[in-house]
Fold this sequence. Notes:
Number of strands: 18
Shape: globular
CATH superfamily of the domain at 330-441: Dihydrodipicolinate Reductase, domain 2
Helix content: 25-40%
Bound molecules: nicotinamide-adenine-dinucleotide
Amino acid sequence: MAPPNAEISHPTATSNGTLNSPTPLFKVNSPNVQYTNDHIFSKYTYFNTLVKKQADGTLIAEPTETIYEFKTERTVPRVGVMLVGWGGNNGSTLTASILSHKKKLTWHTRTGAHEPNYYGSVTQSSTVRLGVDPEGNDIYVPMKDMLPMVDPTELVIGGWDISGKNLAEAMERAKVLPYDLQRQVKDDMVNMVPLPSIYYPDFIAANQEDRADNLIPGNNKRAHVNQIRKDIRDFKANNGLDKVIVLWTANTERFAELIDGVNDTADNFLAAVENSHDEIAPSSIFALAAIEEGAPFINGSPQNTFVPGLIQLAERHHTFIGGDDFKSGQTKMKSALVDFLVNAGIKPVAITSYNHLGNNDGKNLSSQRQFRSKEISKSTVVDDMVAANHLLYAKNEHPDHTVVIKYVPSVGDSKRALDEYECDIFMGGRQSISMYNICEDSLLASPLIIDLVVMTELMTRLQYKTADMTKFSHFHSVLSILSYMLKAPMVSSGTPVVNALSRQRTAIENIFRAAVGLTANNEMGLEHKIW
Ligand code: NAD
């Protein structure tokens, strides 16, 4: 099927690899940018400020300039996504939604007729200010048209689940999408059956045992890796795919213990897998299989899948990894609100978060060790924003931060998040902000899966070079550009973690701009101030 936006977008590979339309939505007219049939080349000057502290405490700020060259492959490949936990609420919701786009469905609820959209996806449903027209009016373009990106409607979806229900049954079990929509995608989804998966009962809650009926046999962890590697290869071949991305949207696991000699280095990790060591989690097995197959792996759950040895292996294989934990609701609000408060000079002193939910994720999280993984992932989200303002916070001072999650079956996937932000304000005053957020959890998470896949795939086609490099190179294996979609973003060692949502979005926007030779967006609006 031809991509619907082929006439306005960047070139897209058909299944036989030939180019569709080579006409982008916009072209940059600059000596720093060159479009060839296969690539966009750009030259970008990265301005920064180097700050040095003198002996007397004075700060000396020095502007710096570094030239970066970027090279982006223009052909969008045929991409497959393999979800671990395909039969869960997120997996079945994502699959049905993409199918509804492919089939251009309309469905009815008591509020009227609905058509598919990609709301909640930053790549598909947000715009970027490209520049201004001659009259000084802002001109916006869809983020997805900044660079050639895969169209989510064209994704081929597959994956594994320890539950053998087909995707139609899984969608019904999830109770997320309206019946009239389910009815129209059901026949296609009956034939989608998750591949058998690996189940190490110690890692997820005991209350999940009754759905574990679709398992790869045996206890040999290397044999498990090899089976999953074969599944990835078969999926790629059977669907004529150029690339596969593997994404964990299965249950939250407990944290794996970090043990010297077991998961601390790449070689120790590989040896521990050979020995089927108890502390190697299923999610780490999947990540290893993907890394060894050269398929990017993203972790949408909070557990520490990426133990140090596994990160080293991703670097060794030059495979992209990203994580941890989808940032869909409460944490996303937190990373926007605390950023705003602290930057407004208001001091949050306590952030108290209650959640209750009734889906299978909530059931799994009702077990203490799995809840602990979630608590850790939610806990560090304001740290960088607090540390950025020494006028409000003394060194090592933090607001009180409490996270409670309760399982209430009757609310299903409609998660409730109640947050209270207690703040110190002017002259000893207090401000209490209460927020009550009600939303279908999987309708927030599914668009994030799309963004994670679309951006990760793009990063496999984007390379950079500086003056001291002899050839173009990919970005670091740990994809920190994915931070916007993740609660506890992983970054490469030595890189500071950024949780503030606006900074994370600005990073995406400006990297995309640099790749087409445009300067970083600034809000100075100087063109309006020259009379
Ligand atoms: P879910 O429980 O509905 O789905 C998880 C699926 O994973 C289930 O079908 C289960 O059978 C399967 N599974 C468990 N262990 C497996 C294994 N080893 N191999 C293959 N399949 C396995 O949960 P969900 O609501 O779809 O959420 C999925 C994950 O995403 C959870 O860990 C959750 O914490 C995380 N998450 C979700 C959101 C959100 O939905 N808004 C936000 C952040 C994080």
